[in-house]
Amino acid sequence: MIARFQAAAEAVGAVVRRFSSVADAAAYVLQISGPAIAASHLPDDIRRALSGFTFAPPEEHRNAPVCVSFATAGVAATGSLLLELSDAVERSATALPPIHMAFLRASAIVPDLPSLTGAIDSLLSSRPHAYLSLTTGPSRTADIERVLTIGVHGPKELHILILEGE
Amino acid sequence: MSKKIIRQKIHDSFLRTALKNFAAQYPAARARAFEGDDFESLRDRVSAIRDNALRDLPDLVERFRESAEAAGATVHLCANPEEARSAILGIIRGKGAECVVKSKSMTSEEIRLNPYLEKAGIRSLETDLGEWIIQLAGERPSHMVMPAIHKNRQEVATLFSRETGRDCPPDIPFLVETAREALRDGFLTARVGISGANVAMADSGAIGLVTNEGNARLVTTLPETHIALIGIEKIVPSLAEALDIISILPKNATGQKITSYVSLLRGPSEGHELHVVLLDNGRRQLAADQRFREALKCVKCGACANVCPVYEIVGGHVFGHIYVGGIGLVLTPFFHGTENARDILGLCIGCRRCNEVCAAKIDIEGLILDLRERGTKIPGQKALFGTLMRNRSLFHGTLRAAYLAQKPFQGRDGRIRHLPLILGGDTGNRSLPPIAERPFRDLARDREKVKPDDQGGRERVLFFSGCLADFVFPEMCRDTVESLECLGYSVHFPREQLCCGIPARYSGEVEVARDMARLNTDILMKEQADFVVTICPTCTMSLKHDFPNLLEGEPEHHARSLELAAKVFNFAELAARKVVKSGIPGDGEPVTYHDACHLRRGCGVFREPRTVLEEIADRTVVEMEGPDTCCGFGGSYAFKFPEISYEILKKKMDAIAATGAGTVAVDCPGCKMQIEGGLEGIKSRVRVEHTATLAAERLR
């Protein structure tokens, strides 16, 4: 299933890396980004692994080169990530920077979108307001002469860091 | 539709190349996107979801309103464009905003929101790349999903240079980066963002947005106020239905399994406001209309334009009004008035490719036909159809007189190259076959005098020839009868048979078509027979499908028309029944096969003709590129829009030539007339023959 997810995500232009520890994944982030990043909500273990980083305040999201986020689930059939970004500031962190790096636990990969119906439904209704982003590859357009061009208004690169072996 | 605009589009070489390239790559991309999915069952589900939702529409609207308000949104229910526009302006003014950012919304095009806001002094900035391009150009979208498909990189570079004050080279990545930089400030400073929605859910009050560029996420995130403008037909009961629509939409639209972003949002984020503007604009009334409600099942994927041979020639600025493509023709009279619809409804050639790909299984072609009947009759045609077609001897007498009248226009070989102006100023590049001196009905009478058809024990077949074959291609009729006889049938031609009624129906004269259905049913059911055979797919469709529909209100005739429909078959189907498959592929002279639209998509017949060619006519079938794309005939279409018709034909002739086959087989006298006329015009030596003729050549 991880391999299927990886193949599907790579087919739409995402970079997929598999890590056996959060620390290795954090080292990969550092390689790409340098120490300053924008971030949406992260689970404690990931936030700890990124403790050496400086997190950009909301007004600096527009200038941050890299954003780090955590995906609730992955969809193997399409290489999609389900991101819960109900807070507008967290959302802007993932929408403005040119590079988006998302952590995904291997155990959270499901075969297809219908398998997520229940999870999406409860995410949508279990809080007063909700915003879910199903993200598949980087931002893209083919609006000029149908030529596929990566990176319009959203991130130009999407890196998916799969955490295995937990 | 003005001929000048059509001609201008035909000669717009960029537009033509762009649409041709897209049309060429779309089918394969779409097929890849649906790999592992069963398209038919998925669209059956989407069709049912929409159908049920439309039946429940007032209730769904109410439920959605309650749920969305419970989640903290403000819902504005607007009956018409004016109400929606002023509600939106009110919200913007209430925030003291002077500039709004917009993501793509066809509904905002429907209510012409931008010009209204500009007039009120509000700057409305389109942020979808394609929408921004056409906003800068002062145009309207020429496709529902790819709004700027008609613009090339040079034009975009000029527009961007003018807007940014920098010199932009016609380099696509550079232009995309320019848009990113130029629009970024708008996202960061605008205090109001306006989006549409692809779907809305009644149970949770959530909405779904399907996008690729990421601009919709910014529009719905950075400004503190988000206005979502949504047509009420987008409401479905819950997430499960929404996901089915979200799943079919990008596959059918652009051949993507899923778009880069699918946003599902419910209520305003902390510190934000969400206004949902629900637009009716005739939707509730349309949803209550038995016949036309299905137009609202549309999910706005644009696939009907992607496969339309006419759209491919003229683009969306001709083939549509605000909504473009096949469904655009249907929606225009309801949303933008019959005035705007009158010209464009005639542009459909009736090939039914849109029906084949529609994500919601809408009978787009049927709706267009019925809309023609509702409001677009041409004065004078009533006399033609009303008096002439119902009266067999008068109609046939007129055709016989035409045989004499055409004489001055015939060339040495008998073909007609110059028609009197009234019939066709622009058909000069094609020749027409003449009306025959003796129609088949005369030949049949002579024939049955010497050879009565009841040859004991054989299955009896009634031959319904159709007018074109009867009067223009009598030899095609003779070949049909002889082939079937050689294959063991007994064939009779009922001489009272009338026109099938399709020309009347296509011209909007449904009462005349109903009379033809009733009269022909009586004539054909009076005889004892096992089968009724046709050699014109349009007649086949008419007898099989239209007669029962037309006669629905007349129980006795309806029942008989159903009995008749069960007996009607196309020539190739009856011939193929007698084939004992050799399993050995034909090794005879190569032939390529052109699928008639109404046979392939109207009757689902496409294997049988190939079987007949291989096994009976002993030919080798060499497939052409796009065997089932229209030849451009479309009945009277070739005379109403001769230039469009010829452009479609050229593509077909190129495909035929590329096979190298010396013969192209067809199962439709109309296709034969069109393709033969075109090939003759370019001095090609390729023969065009009905499958029955090729079978007869071998069987005789």
* C-alpha end-to-end distance of chain B: 49 Å
Report helical residue fraction of chain A. 25-40%
CATH homolog superfamily of the largest domain in chain B:
NagB/RpiA/CoA transferase-like
Indicate the mean pLDDT of chain B. Answer: 91
Largest binding interface between chains: A-B, 46 and 63 residues
Describe the strand arrangement of the main beta sheet of chain B, using strand numbers. Answer: 1-10-7-4-2-3
Poorly predicted residue ranges of chain A? none
Number of helices, where a helix is a run of at least 4 consecutive DSSP H or I residues of chain A: 5
Total domain modules of chain A: 1
The CATH class of the largest domain in chain B is identified as Alpha Beta
Q: List the domain count of chain B as a whole number.
A: 3
Q: What value does the average pLDDT of chain A take? A: 94
Summarize the helices and strands and which ones pair or pack:
The complex is a heterodimer of chains A (about 170) and B (about 700).
Chain A (H helix, E strand, L loop, with lengths): L1 H10 L3 E5 L2 H12 L2 E4 L4 H6 L4 E2 L10 E5 L2 E3 L4 E5 L3 H8 L3 E7 L3 E2 L6 H9 L4 E6 L4 E2 L7 E2 L6 E7 L3
Parallel strand pairs in A: 1-12, 2-3, 2-4, 4-7, 5-8, 7-12
Antiparallel strand pairs in A: 5-6, 6-9, 10-11
Chain B lengths: L2 H8 L2 H21 L5 H17 L1 H14 L3 E5 L2 H14 L4 E4 L3 H5 L2 H7 L3 E4 L2 H9 L15 H12 L7 H18 L2 E4 L3 E3 L5 E5 L3 H5 L5 E7 L3 E2 L2 H16 L6 E6 L6 E7 L3 H5 L15 H4 L2 H6 L10 H21 L7 H5 L6 H12 L5 H9 L2 H14 L34 H11 L8 E6 L2 H6 L1 H13 L2 E4 L9 H5 L3 H16 L5 E4 L2 H14 L4 H13 E3 H7 L12 E4 L3 H7 L3 H10 L3 E2 L15 H4 L1 H18 L3 E4 L2 H13 L5 E4 H9 L1
Parallel strand pairs in B: 1-10, 2-3, 2-4, 4-7, 5-8, 7-10, 11-12, 11-13, 13-14, 15-16, 15-17, 17-18
Antiparallel strand pairs in B: 5-6, 6-9
Helix pairs in contact in B: 2-12, 3-12, 9-10, 16-18, 21-23, 23-34, 25-26, 25-27, 26-27, 26-29, 28-30, 30-34, 32-33
What attributes does this structure have?
heterodimer, A: 166 residues, alpha/beta, Rossmann fold, 6-stranded parallel β-sheet, 4-stranded mixed β-sheet, 5 helices, 12 strands, 30% strand, globular, B: 700 residues, 3 domains, 34 helices, 18 strands, 53% helix, 11% strand, elongated
